[in-house]
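Per-record layout

source: Nonomuraea soli
name: M23ase beta-sheet core domain-containing protein
length: 267
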Amino acid sequence: MLIPQTASAAVAHKSPFNCGKTFNANNWYPGHRPSGSIDWQDYGSDDINGEAVRATAAGTAYFYDAGSTSYGKWIEIHHSDGTRTRYAHLATMVRAAGASLSVGQGTQIGTVGSSGGSSAPHLHYEQRSSGGVVDTSPTVDGVTIALGQKKPVTSTNACSGNPYTPQEVCGSGYSVVDSAALSGGTTYLLYNSGNGYNCVVTLKSVSLGTPSPVSAFLEPQGESRVTDSGSFGYYAGPVRLSAPGQCVRWGGSVGSSSYTSPFEHCG
């Protein structure tokens, strides 16, 4: 007997900007290529240049660089329902061209710029089907922008907490094995059974997006401690070290709140 296939739930997209930011979504027509793509632009006195660009929905991000032509620095995210989004003319990307990264909704992937074939800073944005067809009336944060329309959209992206997960920061193959709550965040110990590496990351839950003191450290027994510390917007780490068959001491801090484990998780 045939078993019906269950379709993935359709992805709901949020604005690609920080919580509370308002920018114009311009689906201008005719002449925009490809038709249906959105140019995010200044709104009122709010300058979009240099703004953080965030994933509008969770998925796997792929990073590209077309140099001084076309999209310039650009990213495509493949989502769980098979659809894709594109983000182009970026000033910076969080990974180099050729890399990929698992991202959550709200994860920062780059910053707005004017790379490639762009005459002024803006974010070129597309929503595409699994077959690559551009949606000519995309919906973002509940606002549908049809061909020829220009609408201000206020972001609700990354409003509910840290947009990063410890797995995203440490990378593919890592799983959380322990954690410790801090006043203002959490420090995590992860392990990758495929390569024998541990990873420690500390995620903030306060002052998100604003640089403030945070740290993460890892110390295999009998070896030197490695620490990542500084004023960061979302997290410290990842600190990755090979420790197969070894006990580890790990921990981190957010502001004055800190945690240091005993030597544990041996083997």
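summary: Residues 14 and 141 are 4 Å apart (CA to CA). The chain has two domains: 22-154, 166-260.
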